[in-house]
Design goal:
Blueprint lengths: L4 H28 L4 H12 L12 H48 L5 E4 L3 H12 L4 E5 L2 H10 L3 E3 L5 H6 L7 E4 L4 H14 L4 E5 L6 H7 L3 E3 L1 H14 L1 H12 L5 E7 L11 H4 L1 H5 L2 E6 L5 E3 L12 E7 L8
Amino acid sequence: MVINEQLISGVRRGVIGIMLVLLFGTIGYKYIENWGWLDAFYMTVITVSTVGITEVHPLSNAGRLFTVVMIIGGVGVMAYCLTRLAEFMFQRSISNVLGRRAMTKKMSCMKNHVIICGYGRTGSRVVTELQANRKAFVVIEENEELVKRMEELGIPHLIGDATDEDTLEEAHIGNAESLVAALDSDAENLFLTLTAVSLCSTVRVIARVHEPDNSRKFRKAGAARVVSPISSGANQIAQLLTRPSVVDLIELVAMDKSIALEVFEHLIEEESDMLGKTLSEARVRQVLGSLVIAVKHRDGTTAFDPGPQTRLNLGDTLVAIRQSTESEQTL
Protein backbone atom coordinates (compact mmCIF):
# COMPACT_ATOMS: atom_id res chain seq x y z
CA MET A 1 0.00 0.00 0.00
CA VAL A 2 1.54 3.31 -1.12
CA ILE A 3 0.25 6.56 0.41
CA ASN A 4 1.22 9.91 -1.09
CA GLU A 5 4.03 11.39 1.05
CA GLN A 6 2.78 14.89 0.35
CA LEU A 7 -0.63 13.93 1.75
CA ILE A 8 0.92 12.47 4.91
CA SER A 9 2.96 15.64 5.33
CA GLY A 10 -0.24 17.69 5.03
CA VAL A 11 -1.96 15.68 7.77
CA ARG A 12 1.11 16.06 9.97
CA ARG A 13 1.14 19.83 9.50
CA GLY A 14 -2.58 19.99 10.28
CA VAL A 15 -2.20 18.11 13.56
CA ILE A 16 0.71 20.32 14.58
CA GLY A 17 -1.39 23.38 13.65
CA ILE A 18 -4.27 22.30 15.90
CA MET A 19 -1.90 21.77 18.83
CA LEU A 20 -0.37 25.21 18.30
CA VAL A 21 -3.82 26.82 18.11
CA LEU A 22 -4.89 25.16 21.37
CA LEU A 23 -1.66 26.19 23.05
CA PHE A 24 -1.87 29.74 21.74
CA GLY A 25 -5.52 30.12 22.78
CA THR A 26 -4.97 28.71 26.26
CA ILE A 27 -2.06 31.02 26.96
CA GLY A 28 -3.94 33.99 25.50
CA TYR A 29 -7.05 33.56 27.65
CA LYS A 30 -4.88 32.84 30.65
CA TYR A 31 -3.05 36.18 30.52
CA ILE A 32 -5.66 38.39 28.83
CA GLU A 33 -8.57 37.41 31.10
CA ASN A 34 -6.48 36.17 34.02
CA TRP A 35 -8.33 32.84 34.09
CA GLY A 36 -7.16 29.47 35.35
CA TRP A 37 -5.47 27.08 32.94
CA LEU A 38 -8.49 24.75 32.76
CA ASP A 39 -10.95 27.58 32.04
CA ALA A 40 -8.59 29.01 29.42
CA PHE A 41 -8.17 25.63 27.69
CA TYR A 42 -11.94 24.95 27.79
CA MET A 43 -12.71 28.35 26.31
CA THR A 44 -10.17 27.71 23.54
CA VAL A 45 -11.76 24.37 22.64
CA ILE A 46 -15.35 25.65 22.49
CA THR A 47 -14.19 28.67 20.47
CA VAL A 48 -12.27 26.81 17.72
CA SER A 49 -14.93 24.08 17.56
CA THR A 50 -17.70 26.69 17.08
CA VAL A 51 -20.14 24.68 19.20
CA GLY A 52 -21.78 27.85 20.52
CA ILE A 53 -21.65 27.03 24.25
CA THR A 54 -21.94 29.93 26.69
CA GLU A 55 -18.70 31.67 27.61
CA VAL A 56 -16.95 30.47 30.75
CA HIS A 57 -16.75 34.04 32.12
CA PRO A 58 -17.77 37.41 30.69
CA LEU A 59 -15.15 38.62 28.24
CA SER A 60 -13.39 41.95 28.19
CA ASN A 61 -13.03 43.91 24.96
CA ALA A 62 -9.49 42.53 24.54
CA GLY A 63 -10.84 39.04 25.19
CA ARG A 64 -13.52 39.45 22.54
CA LEU A 65 -11.00 40.61 19.93
CA PHE A 66 -8.79 37.66 20.85
CA THR A 67 -11.79 35.33 20.45
CA VAL A 68 -12.42 36.67 16.95
CA VAL A 69 -8.81 35.90 16.02
CA MET A 70 -9.16 32.44 17.53
CA ILE A 71 -12.33 31.69 15.56
CA ILE A 72 -10.84 32.78 12.24
CA GLY A 73 -7.49 31.07 12.77
CA GLY A 74 -8.76 28.00 14.60
CA VAL A 75 -11.60 27.20 12.19
CA GLY A 76 -9.23 27.59 9.25
CA VAL A 77 -6.73 25.17 10.75
CA MET A 78 -9.46 22.70 11.70
CA ALA A 79 -10.93 22.77 8.18
CA TYR A 80 -7.49 22.24 6.67
CA CYS A 81 -6.69 19.30 8.95
CA LEU A 82 -10.06 17.57 8.54
CA THR A 83 -9.83 17.92 4.76
CA ARG A 84 -6.38 16.35 4.70
CA LEU A 85 -7.48 13.59 7.08
CA ALA A 86 -10.52 12.74 4.94
CA GLU A 87 -8.34 12.74 1.83
CA PHE A 88 -5.81 10.50 3.58
CA MET A 89 -8.46 7.96 4.63
CA PHE A 90 -10.04 7.97 1.16
CA GLN A 91 -6.72 7.37 -0.58
CA ARG A 92 -5.86 4.63 1.90
CA SER A 93 -9.15 2.84 1.24
CA ILE A 94 -8.73 3.16 -2.52
CA SER A 95 -5.15 1.87 -2.28
CA ASN A 96 -6.30 -1.17 -0.29
CA VAL A 97 -9.07 -2.01 -2.77
CA LEU A 98 -6.91 -1.53 -5.85
CA GLY A 99 -4.02 -3.40 -4.22
CA ARG A 100 -6.20 -6.42 -3.45
CA ARG A 101 -7.65 -6.43 -6.97
CA ALA A 102 -4.21 -6.22 -8.55
CA MET A 103 -2.93 -9.03 -6.33
CA THR A 104 -5.95 -11.21 -7.07
CA LYS A 105 -5.53 -10.65 -10.79
CA LYS A 106 -1.83 -11.45 -10.58
CA MET A 107 -2.45 -14.67 -8.67
CA SER A 108 -5.14 -15.78 -11.12
CA CYS A 109 -2.48 -15.83 -13.84
CA MET A 110 0.08 -17.74 -11.78
CA LYS A 111 1.23 -21.17 -12.94
CA ASN A 112 4.01 -23.37 -11.63
CA HIS A 113 4.32 -21.02 -8.67
CA VAL A 114 5.26 -21.71 -5.05
CA ILE A 115 2.82 -21.35 -2.18
CA ILE A 116 4.57 -20.43 1.08
CA CYS A 117 2.47 -21.06 4.16
CA GLY A 118 3.78 -18.93 7.00
CA TYR A 119 5.98 -15.84 6.86
CA GLY A 120 8.05 -16.55 9.95
CA ARG A 121 11.81 -17.07 10.08
CA THR A 122 11.73 -19.94 7.60
CA GLY A 123 9.10 -18.52 5.27
CA SER A 124 10.70 -15.07 5.04
CA ARG A 125 14.06 -16.59 4.06
CA VAL A 126 12.41 -18.74 1.42
CA VAL A 127 10.77 -15.60 0.02
CA THR A 128 14.15 -13.86 -0.18
CA GLU A 129 15.68 -16.74 -2.14
CA LEU A 130 12.70 -16.99 -4.50
CA GLN A 131 12.84 -13.26 -5.17
CA ALA A 132 16.55 -13.53 -5.94
CA ASN A 133 15.80 -16.32 -8.43
CA ARG A 134 12.72 -14.54 -9.87
CA LYS A 135 10.44 -17.45 -9.05
CA ALA A 136 6.71 -16.74 -8.84
CA PHE A 137 5.24 -17.27 -5.36
CA VAL A 138 2.47 -16.26 -2.99
CA VAL A 139 2.54 -16.25 0.82
CA ILE A 140 -0.39 -17.26 3.03
CA GLU A 141 -0.33 -15.62 6.47
CA GLU A 142 -2.89 -14.54 9.08
CA ASN A 143 -0.67 -12.74 11.59
CA GLU A 144 -1.50 -9.02 11.34
CA GLU A 145 2.04 -7.80 12.05
CA LEU A 146 3.57 -10.11 9.43
CA VAL A 147 0.87 -9.16 6.92
CA LYS A 148 1.63 -5.47 7.48
CA ARG A 149 5.33 -6.14 6.91
CA MET A 150 4.60 -7.94 3.64
CA GLU A 151 2.37 -5.06 2.51
CA GLU A 152 5.22 -2.62 3.12
CA LEU A 153 7.63 -4.84 1.15
CA GLY A 154 5.15 -5.46 -1.67
CA ILE A 155 5.21 -9.25 -1.22
CA PRO A 156 2.33 -11.16 -2.91
CA HIS A 157 0.22 -12.63 -0.12
CA LEU A 158 -3.16 -13.85 1.01
CA ILE A 159 -4.61 -13.21 4.45
CA GLY A 160 -6.10 -16.37 5.91
CA ASP A 161 -5.63 -19.79 7.43
CA ALA A 162 -3.26 -21.86 5.29
CA THR A 163 -4.87 -25.12 6.45
CA ASP A 164 -8.25 -24.02 5.08
CA GLU A 165 -9.18 -25.50 1.70
CA ASP A 166 -10.77 -22.28 0.43
CA THR A 167 -7.58 -20.32 1.16
CA LEU A 168 -5.42 -22.86 -0.69
CA GLU A 169 -7.77 -22.82 -3.66
CA GLU A 170 -7.65 -19.01 -3.67
CA ALA A 171 -3.86 -19.38 -3.95
CA HIS A 172 -4.52 -21.59 -7.03
CA ILE A 173 -2.97 -24.71 -5.58
CA GLY A 174 -4.13 -26.63 -8.66
CA ASN A 175 -1.63 -24.67 -10.76
CA ALA A 176 1.13 -24.61 -8.15
CA GLU A 177 4.43 -26.40 -8.54
CA SER A 178 5.33 -26.58 -4.85
CA LEU A 179 4.01 -25.76 -1.40
CA VAL A 180 6.18 -24.91 1.60
CA ALA A 181 4.64 -25.84 4.95
CA ALA A 182 6.33 -23.49 7.42
CA LEU A 183 3.66 -22.93 10.07
CA ASP A 184 4.33 -22.67 13.80
CA SER A 185 3.75 -26.28 14.83
CA ASP A 186 4.23 -29.80 13.45
CA ALA A 187 0.51 -30.49 13.93
CA GLU A 188 -0.45 -27.53 11.73
CA ASN A 189 2.12 -28.44 9.08
CA LEU A 190 0.98 -32.06 9.05
CA PHE A 191 -2.67 -31.10 8.61
CA LEU A 192 -1.65 -28.60 5.93
CA THR A 193 0.25 -31.34 4.08
CA LEU A 194 -2.77 -33.65 4.13
CA THR A 195 -5.07 -30.87 2.95
CA ALA A 196 -2.74 -29.75 0.15
CA VAL A 197 -2.20 -33.26 -1.20
CA SER A 198 -5.92 -33.98 -1.11
CA LEU A 199 -6.62 -30.84 -3.14
CA CYS A 200 -3.82 -31.39 -5.67
CA SER A 201 -1.98 -34.68 -5.83
CA THR A 202 0.71 -33.24 -8.14
CA VAL A 203 1.82 -30.39 -5.85
CA ARG A 204 5.28 -30.94 -4.32
CA VAL A 205 5.00 -30.36 -0.57
CA ILE A 206 8.13 -29.37 1.32
CA ALA A 207 7.42 -29.47 5.05
CA ARG A 208 9.44 -28.11 7.94
CA VAL A 209 9.36 -30.17 11.14
CA HIS A 210 10.38 -29.08 14.61
CA GLU A 211 10.75 -32.63 15.92
CA PRO A 212 12.84 -34.91 13.66
CA ASP A 213 10.92 -37.98 14.90
CA ASN A 214 7.83 -36.66 13.10
CA SER A 215 9.46 -36.80 9.65
CA ARG A 216 8.04 -40.25 8.90
CA LYS A 217 4.48 -39.01 9.53
CA PHE A 218 4.94 -36.20 7.03
CA ARG A 219 6.20 -38.58 4.35
CA LYS A 220 3.19 -40.81 4.91
CA ALA A 221 0.95 -37.75 4.62
CA GLY A 222 2.39 -37.05 1.17
CA ALA A 223 5.26 -34.60 1.73
CA ALA A 224 7.89 -34.89 -1.00
CA ARG A 225 10.59 -33.44 1.24
CA VAL A 226 10.83 -33.01 5.01
CA VAL A 227 13.27 -30.47 6.42
CA SER A 228 14.31 -30.54 10.06
CA PRO A 229 16.37 -27.52 11.19
CA ILE A 230 17.59 -29.52 14.19
CA SER A 231 18.81 -32.46 12.09
CA SER A 232 20.25 -30.17 9.42
CA GLY A 233 22.13 -28.16 12.02
CA ALA A 234 23.48 -31.29 13.72
CA ASN A 235 24.58 -32.75 10.39
CA GLN A 236 26.34 -29.54 9.45
CA ILE A 237 28.21 -29.49 12.75
CA ALA A 238 29.26 -33.11 12.21
CA GLN A 239 30.42 -32.28 8.67
CA LEU A 240 32.41 -29.32 9.99
CA LEU A 241 34.15 -31.64 12.44
CA THR A 242 34.90 -34.39 9.94
CA ARG A 243 35.09 -32.63 6.53
CA PRO A 244 35.48 -28.89 7.14
CA SER A 245 37.00 -28.12 3.72
CA VAL A 246 33.99 -29.59 1.89
CA VAL A 247 31.55 -27.55 3.99
CA ASP A 248 33.62 -24.40 3.50
CA LEU A 249 33.51 -24.91 -0.27
CA ILE A 250 29.74 -25.46 -0.33
CA GLU A 251 29.10 -22.40 1.85
CA LEU A 252 31.42 -20.29 -0.27
CA VAL A 253 29.58 -21.20 -3.46
CA ALA A 254 26.18 -20.67 -1.82
CA MET A 255 26.94 -17.34 -0.14
CA ASP A 256 29.45 -15.62 -2.40
CA LYS A 257 27.40 -14.17 -5.26
CA SER A 258 30.57 -13.41 -7.22
CA ILE A 259 31.14 -17.15 -7.71
CA ALA A 260 28.92 -17.83 -10.71
CA LEU A 261 28.07 -21.49 -10.19
CA GLU A 262 24.63 -23.06 -10.22
CA VAL A 263 23.10 -26.49 -9.91
CA PHE A 264 20.29 -27.00 -12.39
CA GLU A 265 17.95 -29.63 -13.84
CA HIS A 266 17.51 -30.66 -17.46
CA LEU A 267 14.50 -32.83 -18.30
CA ILE A 268 14.77 -35.40 -21.10
CA GLU A 269 11.63 -34.89 -23.21
CA GLU A 270 10.34 -36.48 -26.40
CA GLU A 271 11.88 -33.83 -28.66
CA SER A 272 15.23 -33.91 -26.84
CA ASP A 273 18.25 -34.83 -28.97
CA MET A 274 19.65 -36.70 -25.96
CA LEU A 275 16.75 -39.16 -25.76
CA GLY A 276 17.92 -42.77 -26.03
CA LYS A 277 21.59 -41.84 -26.00
CA THR A 278 24.25 -42.47 -23.40
CA LEU A 279 25.90 -39.59 -21.61
CA SER A 280 28.94 -40.06 -23.82
CA GLU A 281 26.88 -40.06 -27.02
CA ALA A 282 24.77 -37.09 -25.92
CA ARG A 283 27.91 -35.01 -25.32
CA VAL A 284 26.29 -33.31 -22.33
CA ARG A 285 29.40 -31.36 -21.39
CA GLN A 286 29.57 -29.79 -24.83
CA VAL A 287 25.81 -29.28 -25.32
CA LEU A 288 24.92 -27.96 -21.84
CA GLY A 289 28.36 -26.73 -20.85
CA SER A 290 28.05 -28.53 -17.55
CA LEU A 291 29.14 -31.47 -15.45
CA VAL A 292 26.47 -34.10 -14.72
CA ILE A 293 26.52 -35.09 -11.06
CA ALA A 294 23.36 -37.23 -10.99
CA VAL A 295 20.56 -38.67 -13.12
CA LYS A 296 17.08 -38.86 -11.60
CA HIS A 297 15.22 -41.64 -13.38
CA ARG A 298 11.51 -41.59 -14.04
CA ASP A 299 10.92 -44.46 -11.59
CA GLY A 300 12.21 -42.31 -8.73
CA THR A 301 15.71 -43.78 -8.41
CA THR A 302 18.78 -41.58 -8.65
CA ALA A 303 22.18 -42.48 -10.07
CA PHE A 304 24.92 -40.35 -8.55
CA ASP A 305 28.16 -39.75 -10.43
CA PRO A 306 26.79 -41.56 -13.50
CA GLY A 307 29.23 -43.18 -15.90
CA PRO A 308 29.52 -42.27 -19.59
CA GLN A 309 27.49 -45.35 -20.58
CA THR A 310 24.43 -44.27 -18.57
CA ARG A 311 21.52 -44.21 -21.03
CA LEU A 312 19.03 -41.35 -20.96
CA ASN A 313 15.37 -42.35 -21.20
CA LEU A 314 12.16 -40.34 -21.51
CA GLY A 315 11.37 -38.52 -18.25
CA ASP A 316 14.89 -38.72 -16.84
CA THR A 317 16.27 -35.57 -15.27
CA LEU A 318 19.91 -34.55 -15.42
CA VAL A 319 21.26 -32.81 -12.34
CA ALA A 320 24.30 -30.82 -13.36
CA ILE A 321 26.58 -28.00 -12.26
CA ARG A 322 27.91 -25.19 -14.42
CA GLN A 323 28.75 -21.52 -14.53
CA SER A 324 25.66 -19.45 -13.94
CA THR A 325 23.27 -18.77 -16.82
CA GLU A 326 19.56 -17.96 -16.90
CA SER A 327 18.69 -20.54 -19.55
CA GLU A 328 17.75 -23.26 -17.09
CA GLN A 329 15.71 -23.52 -13.92
CA THR A 330 17.96 -23.26 -10.87
CA LEU A 331 17.33 -25.51 -7.93
